[in-house]
Write a structure and sequence with these properties.
Elements lengths: L4 E13 L11 E7 L3 E9 L1 H7 L10 E7 L20 E2 L17
Amino acid sequence: MTHKWHPTIVSVIAVEEGGRLDCCDEDTAHVWVTVAGWSPRRAFLTGAAPFVEASGKKAADLVGEHFTARLDLDDQPGNEDTNGERLEWPELALCPPIPAEWLGGGQEGNQ
């Protein structure tokens, strides 16, 4: 089976600080993200460190930031992996500005 590895938008929707996902987790800051190529309505909790590194911002300042990552769009995490999954973000980078209508924030008919 051939997998489709494509760049997709990863949006940070919330930040949690002060806890660990599991006993091996060294990162105490975590972000809730949505992945457009998987499902824009489903959020994943993951470590903030790769997002901090890619943006140069503090974890607390990541809410509302958009990134791109090259992900396998045919192999998204299962429902049981939504909280605490150790997801990887290959080629994570800050996304160029995205028009609001692409993110569902535009209002049709108003111009």
